């Protein structure tokens, strides 16, 4: 193989390498497992393709039901992976959603968005929004997915993500809050936003973001820096939970987004766990 063809253009270790010939070598979260029925918890899962053109899909999770007529909260979950690796089928995320679905007793939708650098930001934002709109289309109880029609409570919706997924979740909530009624999206009421190890640019540039989001405004971009977003105080949810590990470098993003909510006049509750 010609060495010129394999010249590295950019690398974000230990996550991926991108070569000048367009090839991307992912180093993490490359394994995939199919949906199934978990023998320990009874949680069922299945995949649904939303958009054949982009490949955007979701993996749905349904807990073991003690009362099939009872409506359960809906969790929309967006996985992490530096915007560039992973999927709902990654064992780490799949197993986490099984546990979360069982313990919280929720119906869950895990979003499979397009990955950078083949699909640079804002593609992931658009894909997540497409998935949320698709989920909301079931609020009339006549959508294409029976689990959502029969079991999801669209007045109790939570959007949660970790790392890059937390950034995407924040942007989903920002976009949903542009509606006049604030907390509803075609019959969907998002009441909670969960940001776990959130990936934000608060006070310094980020080489990964510069590479995978070349059209951004950097530190002045409200999609990347909550302190640059004048709409934070008007987010339509009533609860925000921010979590980060004490020695995780992403904790600075968590502290920054917490400060942005506190300083914005946001009227809901904001809790941070470090």
UniProtKB/TrEMBL annotation:
The record, for InterPro entries, names:
AB_hydrolase_3, AB_hydrolase_fold, Carboxylest/Gibb_receptor
Boundaries of every Alpha/beta hydrolase fold-3 domain copy? 75-266
Q: Which SUPFAM superfamilies match?
A: alpha/beta-Hydrolases
Name any one Pfam family assigned in the record. Answer: Abhydrolase_3
Q: Which PANTHER family match?
A: ALPHA_BETA HYDROLASE FOLD PROTEIN (PTHR23024:SF429), ARYLACETAMIDE DEACETYLASE (PTHR23024)
The similarity comment for this entry is: Belongs to the 'GDXG' lipolytic enzyme family.
- Would you tell me the protein name for this molecule? Alpha/beta hydrolase fold-3 domain-containing protein
Organism this protein belongs to: Citrullus colocynthis (colocynth)
């Amino acid at each position: 193989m010609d060495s010129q063809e394999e010249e590295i253009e950019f690398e974000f270790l230990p996550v991926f390498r991108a070569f000048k010939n367009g090839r991307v070598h992912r180093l993490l979260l490359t394994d995939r497992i199919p949906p199934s029925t978990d023998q320990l918890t009874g949680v069922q899962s299945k995949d649904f393709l939303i958009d054949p053109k982009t490949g955007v899909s979701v993996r749905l999770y349904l807990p073991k039901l003690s009362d099939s007529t009872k409506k359960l909260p809906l969790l929309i979950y967006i996985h992490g992976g530096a915007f560039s690796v992973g999927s709902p089928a990654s064992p780490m995320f799949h197993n986490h959603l099984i546990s979360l679905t069982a313990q919280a007793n929720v119906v869950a939708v895990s979003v499979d968005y397009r990955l950078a650098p083949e699909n640079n930001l804002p593609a992931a934002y658009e894909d997540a929004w497409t998935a949320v709109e698709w989920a909301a289309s079931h609020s009339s109880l006549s959508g294409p997915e029976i689990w959502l029609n029969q079991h999801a409570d669209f007045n109790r919706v939570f959007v949660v993500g970790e790392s890059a997924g937390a950034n995407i979740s924040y942007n989903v909530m920002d976009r949903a809050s542009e509606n006049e009624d604030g907390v509803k999206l075609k019959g969907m009421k998002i009441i909670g936003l969960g940001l776990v190890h959130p990936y934000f640019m608060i006070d310094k540039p980020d080489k990964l973001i510069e590479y995978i989001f070349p059209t951004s405004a950097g530190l002045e971009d409200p999609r990347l820096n909550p302190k640059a977003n004048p709409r934070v105080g008007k987010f339509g949810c009533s609860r925000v939970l921010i979590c980060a590990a004490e020695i995780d470098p992403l904790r600075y993003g968590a502290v920054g987004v917490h400060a942005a909510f506190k300083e914005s006049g946001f009227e809901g509750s904001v809790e941070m766990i470090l």
